[in-house]
Hints:
CATH class of the domain at 58-163 and 208-318: Mainly Alpha
CATH architecture of the domain at 58-163 and 208-318: Up-down Bundle
Number of strands: 0
Amino acid sequence: xxxxxxxxxxxxxxxxxxxxxxxxxxxxxxxxxxxxxxxxxxxxxxxxxxxxxxxxxxxxxxxxxxxxxxxxxxxxxxxxxxxxxxxxxxxxxxxxxxxxxxxxxxxxxxxxxxxxxxxxxxxxxxxxxxxxxxxxxxxxxxxxxxxxxxxxxxxxxxxxxxxxxxxxxxxxxxxxxxxxxxxxxxxxxxxxxxxxxxxxxxxxxxxxxxxxxxxxxxxxxxxxxxxxxxxxxxxxxxxxxxxxxxxxxxxxxxxxxxxxxxxxxxxxxxxxxxxxxxxxxxxxxxxxxxxxxxxxxxxxxxxxxxxxxxxxxxxxxxxxxxxxxx
Length: 326
């Protein structure tokens, strides 16, 4: 039986807290400054934890990495645009922005690697691809945001110079600083992995609380009824189902080995909450961020649940084949 994700429960509690006790008045600039600080620290620690050896492992498997990046930054955006064109009235424009924002985000790192490992796939390739996706995403996601969202939603967001500068100052520079210091503090960061994971998640909760507070003050729950939440779940489920089928079928059609197929399925179908929430805070107006990240939060939990089931099926198949060989 699958247990509830503690982090999901914490996210729900944070949204409820922001709904009942939103940040107001003099506390708003304080939380805004705190949000900027925790985002910078989180990306600095991500850079410090990333071993350069891990980046080099599996780099030679370029066809696999290209397939995963194509799923992440080409297939997903095209599917999002197609769904929006087919069902424009299903969601409000702001929520469609959120769905399309999900589509342009990079893959996850930890869960992609974990599920690939559980399913007995090519873990080295998963490490390399998931890492590359996040590095590339810091630059590519803002560009795709401007192209995809501005083209799909009339009156939608446009990538501005302030958005680019914000990404560079709040995300890229701290990450690069962490990478530069990695030879000296990387070991410390790895030894305190659990503590730093809690720090990362705490940072995300602060960002979510600040974003939802601003949205609640602007009347979020009057704009997003239960029927819209159900519609978000439906759209997210369609996206995930199509990508999972496409990655599995595509990997087999292109002649990838079974272990590589697993890496493609789990790395190519994921979208990161850890980087997505901070990026939304930088790219979108504060009053919009709450609605924008709703589809991402729902997609995050949906991908964890579905991929956990799928990883176990892959693992059982691998175990059965091992028994047949003995």
